[in-house]
Structure formats: C-alpha cells, structure tokens
TrEMBL record:
Residues 296-460 form the GSCFA domain. It comes from Bradyrhizobium ontarionense. Keywords: TPR repeat. TPR repeats lie at residues 16-49, 127-160. InterPro entries: GSCFA, TPR-like_helical_dom_sf, TPR_rpt. This is GSCFA domain-containing protein. SUPFAM superfamilies: HCP-like. SMART domains: TPR.
Amino acid sequence: MSTTALDNHTQFQSIVGQIRTLAYKYIEDKDFVSAQLAFQKLLELDPKDINARFIYAQLIDDGSHKKRAEARDMMLAILDEHPEIFDDPSEGNLHLIRSAAVRCSHVGPFTRSMELFRKLARASNQAADYFSLSEILTQGNEFEEAVAALEKAIKLNPAYDNPINRETLELARSNAKKGKVKEAKGRAKVGRYPETKDFLGDLQTLITSHIAVNLNAAPKFLDKSTRFFTMGSCFARNLSKSLTDSGYASHHMEISEYINTTFANRVFVDWLRDADIDPEIRERIVELLPPGSSKENTLDIIKQADVFILTLGVAAAFFDRETGAFVLPRPTALNSRALAEKYKFRTASVQENVDNVLYLIDFVRSISPGIKVIVTVSPVPLLTSFEYESVVQADCLSKSTMRLVAHEVVNNSNLQDIWYWPSFEVFRWGGSNASSFFAADDGAAWHVSEDKVSATVRAFVQTFSPA
C-alpha cells in the first residue's frame, strides 16, 4: 500500500472514530435524535459495525409498526449473519437476541419469536426470559411447552409465583388437555390470524390452513359424479363455471343480476311452487329467465342435484313505500334514480334475510330431501346505493348483514348437512393482504379474478373430497 493510501486510510479511520465517539456521547447525553443521525452516518461509513447496527436499530424504533419492523429486520440480519452470537451468552448478545425476539412478538413472525425466545431462555437461564417464552408459546398454541416455561420461571425466581401466574398455570393446563382432545379430532386449538407470508403464498393452502380450517373435519362427499345446483349472485355463476371447468356437473340458476337478494330468491321459489304472488313480479321473473329455461326443467335440475350452493348477494333491495312489500322493478341506468324516489331502497335486517333463506332451503329439500347445502356470501361488492352516499360503507353493511345471515342459518337453525364456505373471507380478507384478487382480469375493482375463483373451488373440492 502506498504512503498516500495509508494516509487516506488513517484519515478515514480517524473520521469514523470521531463520529463513533460523538454518537456514543449523544447516547450518554440522552440526545437520541442526534444519536440516530450520528449512528446513521457511522453505518454509511462502516456498515459492518455490529454494535452500531444494533444501537441504530433500537434508535429508529419509535413504536410504529413500520419502524418496529425495520428495527426487527436489522436485528435479524445481524443474527443471521453472525450465528456464533447464539453460542456466546454475553450480556450484549443476550440483549440483541431478546430485542429481536420482542419485536418479532409485536409485528411477527411469531414463529421466529418463539425460536429466538427458546434460544434466549436456554442461554440466559433467566426467569424473565422463560416467562416471555411462555407468553409467546401460548400465542402459538404450544400450551404444554408454555406451561413448562412458566414453571421454569417460577422455579428460577419465586417472585413469579404469584396468584395471577398460578391461575394462568391452571388455565393453561386445562387448555392443554382440551387442545389434545381437539387435536385428535383434527381441529385447531386456537385460531390465529395468518401472517403476511401466508397471504402471499399459495392461495389453496391459505384457504385450507387458515380460512376454511374448521371444515377439515367435514364429511367427504364429493366425487366426479356429484351434481351441483347453484343459485344466487353472479359469484354463484363464477363458482358453477369453475366447477364445470374442473370436470363436475354443475347447473347455475341463471336469472339476472337483479335476482341477487334473498327476497328475490323467495319470490322465485314462490313462482316455482305456483304460489300466489304479485302479477308484476311473476311477469318480471319470466322476463329474466334465460332462453330455454322453464319452471319444469328448473324443478327437474333441483331434484337431480346432490349439492345445493346458495350464494348470498346483497342485503339491500327495493320495497313499496306504502305497503313495505318487496318489489322487483325494471332498473336501468337512466331510471334507477327515479325508482329510488318511487320505492324505498333499504338494507334488510338479518332476521328478514334468515327467514327468506330458510324458506328457500325448505323448498329445495322438499323436492330433494337428501341434498347437501353449502351457503356462501358473494365477495362481489354492492355497486350502487340509494340509501347511503358512500357505497363502500353501504357495501360493508350489506355484506356484514349477509355474513351474519349465513352464520345464523348454518349454525343456529338446527339444519343438518349444511356448511358455510368462506369465499367472502377468501376474497375480502385475502384480497386486503395480497394483490390481484379484484380487477386482475379486466381492471374492474368489482370483478373477482377467475384465477382466484378457480383456486377457491380447488380448495372447496379438496375439503369435501376423500383423500
């Protein structure tokens, strides 16, 4: 190395040393704003300084999720680059592992937090670390290990032997026993919200492992001979098409987008059973039937079906302002506002919709007594509201209502051979955490992706089919 190079290197090291000294002085003076800037500059000049990286990570953590995650990533990077840290239980190394574990427990991933707390507790043998381990293990459903960790904390430090922890131990032991029973039945012990990697991973796995996990123990009744009859919103049509594309026999009762309320479904049933209905509604139903459809062949399709999939659409509908009766007008873009003045557009109650759905299922089973019923809620949003200025809020109210309807019908109506399939949650919750659930095919924010529908159907078939 030349003299000039040596001089430059010496000068550089001198500058780095001065900044390092200044940075630590700011820490001593509790001037954390200046310390953050100084450590940031220090890392620009010497990015391999482990201590500076760790201190800077702590300084940038302002309590927000974004900054906490940024600090977590910096700490995890140090541990990944220097695995020997786990073999040297110095106070500084333990502090680093502890800090990373705590941040993982706050913003995820919980699995990494459990891994770090396990290593930390063994290395430090401190009661506080075993107590923290018991807490994160409980969140991860590891009840037996959580109990052991809490017992270890109490053994190491009698201060942890208090009424709260004794009660916690009793509850944890009880949960561990219950967990074994549930696990034997193939059911999850405690539900936990999926992590980002789950949402961004394989959709079919996300559905079966995190969204429809309660159906893993459901009866397996599907095979290629199973015949489906679907009814409801346009999403039911998408499901039917995807089932057909997958080689299953499926018939969708295609009427119109206007028949996507339970009130419309109910009057359609009354039309099928020749009940006394409003002449205008009767005429309107006949107008909306697809070419070649009739009362007779519709009844025949229901009789032959093995599985009935009912997709609940929206909770809002038009009603007569004087009598309160449901009406089925002929809306167009031009006259829709006039219709809103003539009729009352409102979000129907949960109970009103429950009554309609039970009426519909009762009719279907009167024709096909052994038919199995799947209830879903369409993720396709309400496009127009004459009740609220914000259609987003109106859609939230509408879908929340229909989701409660599905829950009441499936869980609280004493019906047999009926299940709820969470297509709504797949798209609305999966879609809120990952892209391309809506608008992927045509840019329309209210159109579901065909690819995601297909994955949803594959998960549905997997859930209800023999292994």
